[in-house]
């Protein structure tokens, strides 16, 4: 399914617009809803520069869409799951309105966020998939730690790990903040930095209450945009 990267309407001056890199239908490749056909709404822009980022093409550019136009495009694909992602979607304040509108329309909505921005105002019907940046990401200083007490069973926490040091750091954060008691916790290997088998062995050896995951979409389509 080809990604759409231009707005289907001409209301670019509307106050409810968002800058969008792409909207496309694919399979959810990670987290709790992995495997479900999902519409991805990728917002443009991100204040972070993680060393392993695979969506740098979303840092700049994009096109202005009204929220109404976004909902029309999502509806055209005919599936129940919608993932709002980036970039960092919460870097555009009107993302909050989009999330609520998607929930109002009856979709199962998830938000992929870097964890660097306050999530308190996100609609409680949304499953917030919160990254916690490790030392190996080069952005550990950007973690907004007050987000962690806000997490509920609807939410998910993801660590992308670059090596043994990251693993031990994440294991300590998991225990210190009792994350597994709050929500699902996901450990993923950074594709270019850590062998998936090594991470799997460490999780099993330590009997960690986390879910090992690999990104399904990358196994199927590598890093092809819009997939």
TrEMBL record:
Substrate binds at residues 27-29, 42, 85. It catalyses: 6-carboxy-5,6,7,8-tetrahydropterin + H(+) = 7-carboxy-7-carbaguanine + NH4(+). Pathway: Purine metabolism; 7-cyano-7-deazaguanine biosynthesis. Binds 1 [4Fe-4S] cluster. The cluster is coordinated with 3 cysteines and an exchangeable S-adenosyl-L-methionine. Binds 1 S-adenosyl-L-methionine per subunit. Its EC number is 4.3.99.3. One of its GO terms (biological process) is tRNA queuosine(34) biosynthetic process. GO terms for molecular function: 4 iron, 4 sulfur cluster binding; carbon-nitrogen lyase activity; magnesium ion binding; S-adenosyl-L-methionine binding. Residues 33-227 form the Radical SAM core domain. Belongs to the radical SAM superfamily. 7-carboxy-7-deazaguanine synthase family. This is 7-carboxy-7-deazaguanine synthase. It comes from Luteimonas cucumeris.
């Amino acid at each position: 399914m080809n990604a759409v990267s231009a707005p289907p309407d001409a209301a670019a001056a509307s106050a409810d617009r968002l800058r969008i890199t792409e909207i496309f239908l694919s399979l959810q490749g990670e987290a709790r809803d992995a495997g479900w056909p999902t519409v991805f709404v990728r917002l443009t822009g991100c204040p972070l520069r993680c060393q392993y980022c695979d969506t740098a093409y979303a840092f700049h550019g994009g096109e202005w869409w009204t929220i109404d136009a976004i909902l029309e495009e999502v509806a055209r694909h005919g599936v129940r799951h919608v993932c709002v992602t980036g970039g960092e979607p919460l870097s555009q304040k009107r993302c909050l309105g989009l999330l609520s509108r998607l929930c109002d329309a009856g979709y199962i909505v998830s938000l992929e966020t870097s964890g660097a921005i306050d999530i308190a105002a996100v609609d409680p019907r949304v499953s917030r998939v919160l990254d916690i940046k490790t030392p190996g990401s080069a952005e550990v200083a950007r973690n907004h730690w007050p987000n962690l007490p806000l997490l509920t069973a609807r939410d998910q926490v993801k660590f992308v790990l670059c090596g043994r040091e990251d693993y031990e750091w994440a294991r300590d954060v998991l225990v210190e903040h009792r994350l597994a008691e709050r929500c699902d916790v996901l450990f993923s290997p950074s594709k270019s930095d850590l062998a998936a088998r090594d991470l799997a062995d460490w999780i099993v050896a330590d009997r960690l209450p986390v879910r090992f995951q690999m990104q399904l979409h990358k196994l199927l389509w590598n890093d092809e945009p819009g997939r």
